Predict the 3D structure of the following.
Amino acid sequence: MTVRRLTSQESATLRDRPLADEPGGESATAAGPAGYTRLALSTILVRRDFQGAVSDLLTWRVHERAGLRVDASDIPLQIGTVTLMRWGVGPLSLTIPCRVVDVSDDARRGGFTYGTLRGHPVSGEEEFLLEHRDDGAIEFTITALSRPASTLARLGGPLGRAAQRLMARRYLGALDRLDQQTGGGHETPHRSPGPEGG
């Protein structure tokens, strides 16, 4: 699969959609108001090429490698970029519309946050952040603040939360898989995702 650029009309249609719900002005890294569930997972990457990892993240390759079909208005992404991702096959696939609301890209931190748009099964925000540590290691953290926004998601309850956790773990592993795919390779042992926060 490859990331596809949305047409101008498709982008305009998505940009007209409001955010599914803004969690009371709270960001994904905050505890959040009642009714929202916070998920926080992180890992230390095997790869050490920080700028390459940031590039993979900001060009949607992490999401694509995690198993989503990604259509986006901008590659690489920027604030205001809209995306329509799909998970699954055919008419039963889940549609995941989002808008990028924040981007970090400097010498030590790189990543972005998107908010869900109307039509997404949950409402809230998700942050994907890479941090280049003093020892050269790259820490990848995913933090989400969300609540069910569709009948299916509400009925799913724990299953929906388990699916969100599964996708977060797939995102965390995607950057090292991309590095291996392009011929990278490092001797640093891989560490499993750390315990959840919140």
Q: What stands out?
A: Confidence is low (pLDDT under 50) at residues 185-198. The two ends are 34 Å apart (CA to CA).
